[in-house]
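Re: export button greyed out
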Amino acid sequence: MTDFDVSALLDARTTRIIVTCGSGGVGKTTTAAALAVRAADAGRTVAVLTIDPAKRLAGSLGLTELDNVPRRVELSDIDTEADSDLNSGVTTGKNVVATGKNKGAATGKRSRAAAAQGELWAMMLDTRRTFDEMVSAHTTPERAAQILANPFYRTISSSFSGTQEYMAMEKLGQLAATGKYDLIVVDTPPSRSALDFLDAPQRLTSFLDGRMIRLLATPSRGVMKLVGVGFALFAKAVTAIIGGQMLTDAARFVQLFEDMFGGFRARADATYELLRDSGSAFVVVATCQADAMREAAFFADRLTVERMPLAGLILNRTHPPLVDLPPQVVAAAMAAAEADPSKAKGSTLARAALRIHSDRVVLDAEEQRMRARFDGAHPEIAVISIPALPTDVHDIAGLRRIAASLAPSRAASSAAQ
Amino acid sequence: METMTTMRKQTEHRPGAPEAERWPASARAARLHIVTGKGGTGKSTIAAALALALAYDGKRVLLVETEERQVIAQLFDLPPLPYEERRIAVAPGGGEVRALAIDVEAALFEYFAMFYNLGFAARSLKRLGAVEFATTLAPGLRDVLITGKIKETVTRLEKHGKSEKLKDSGGLGAFMYDAVVVDAPPTGRVVPFLNVTAAMADLARRGPIHSQATGVMSLMHSHNTCVHLVTLLEDMPVMETLEAAEQLRAGDLPIGSIIVNQVSAAHLPETLLADAALGTVDSASLRRGLASYGIDADRAALAGFADEIRRHAEHTAAEAECRTQLAATNLPMIDLPAMPDPVELGELYELAELLIAQGVSV
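Workaround output, generated via the alternate export path:
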């Protein structure tokens, strides 16, 4: 079991692309944004590309809209509230223990000197527009117009399940080619399975390859050789069900698309190679839940098989106890507290504290068990656990709070020593 | 594990609306229950618990899986389910839950078989990936096949005409199922899924699929159907729930209850909550209280407890804010506590009982 050194990954100038992946709902998009903010704070010029249609990144970056080209995100000066909150360091007053929020105000100005030197750019993928632009770039204006007007093209460019992933790759390739960013962080589409991201471009290219479409559109030619009479029947059935017009449109599309196809595939292949490059890093994100952990394990295995550069696993939203007391001491106190009906202020508070703490201990034990299981099966994969924040993240300050526990900056960690 | 039990007990006693407002009359009258929610909210678990709850007191309920993930099998600790209805659980009082994991490929061939005799060709078509091709060409086709199958199960009559079924099909005999519970696609996809006619209109203007889609549409928009939205008290799921509620209303699809899952226990009394959320904890009285329970807390331990209290308070406050947003929909809300993950069979029954305690029934 190794600890995942996210700081080292972000600080290495050789890291050019980071892809965050994992199943839905694990905080992938927020993690991608936090990584990007952290790298920009450390002076890098970063673009973060999100594909999530829920506009989550927009929300967490405080943007009201994102479009198909990266926009500059204003980074305010670093507010050390983030650091104090995550270190959960606590200063004690005479009677009152002040934590995080109160302290922020006092220390907020401390690190103005370390204000952001880098740049943060953010965008959300517009799948349809990326596809349209790609078509326009690869053919004559007349032909492009015909393709864009084709109903079959419209279906494929908006609803085929691999299109989003494919266009994410295309956009990543485009952003990398501008040479404008020295780090690109890519969020992956929300999908049932983390593996879809790797498979979808291949699925789309095979689909557009057009063999099936041609067979269906012209069932009389060459079909017999392939599957015999059943295919003709199938073609007839499909025609009956989805209507002949659709197949005619599809056949026309294939014709129009034919000469672009080679270039299309070549670009997808080039981006795939870019991802296998040593300058790329995959970061798998999971929460301590059975489903998410299972997906993370599948994904890690798959990356290994494909020889993709897997940087590590981020175990998101954990609940480490913040009080270091032996479990039997807590259990005994808990039993005493539950038996005590006293409504005195101290007793009520202490009872609440013990219940809160005990819940955390139970959760933590479960999370530790999950992590140990993953470590056991994947001893070579570096892992970092990120404590849950009490509330959802809406702004740069929140992203910095996450960034601070993901990757304490060198300056902050040396100052602490 | 003791704490888990206290968590559950406390959420049970959460003050809230009376039963009728949690599980509305429209839900009680419906026979088709569509369960949706953002990914990660536990909608499949809730669908399973709902099926169990509705099966109590001798009812027969069908639980339908639509996403080809074999989640039902996992939840009920069974080997992968074939594409056929089979009993997977019994409920107290002689009720039973049957499951159907819809296999889109099989459903498509079943559908073709109604019009064409494909014979041996089916196998080579499968090998060629023909079904994926067809569903890609017409993305709504998948939804049409699934919802078509659902409609068939909802409207099916019992073969032998046993008469003890409570709900009558209008003189035609008893329905096969008292209720059908569908583990539907996530919130983002649920409206297109239910509004198949619209989706198919572009692609199939005529033909058998078109007429089937129309039939499904009238079921979905009838008083026989109810859509339940599963959410957590977190920003993103709440936002998606609000969006889905709006879309469902705009699409004239009947909504049942919002099922709030994984509600955490609120340990702090109201009087202490506001201060605690601001990070203010009276450490002297905390120290005294802890001492009376046998913990001699030093400065570090006190600070740790205070930090845990603050996080808990902030979290509780954030949950309350989410609840306020949900309440703005004026939809009934049902609460369920967090369960250990992964949820096991015993806990499904426990969730079912919590649903029943909040008025869930057919």
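Chain B touches chain A through 91 residues (CB under 8 Å). The button fix ships in the next patch.
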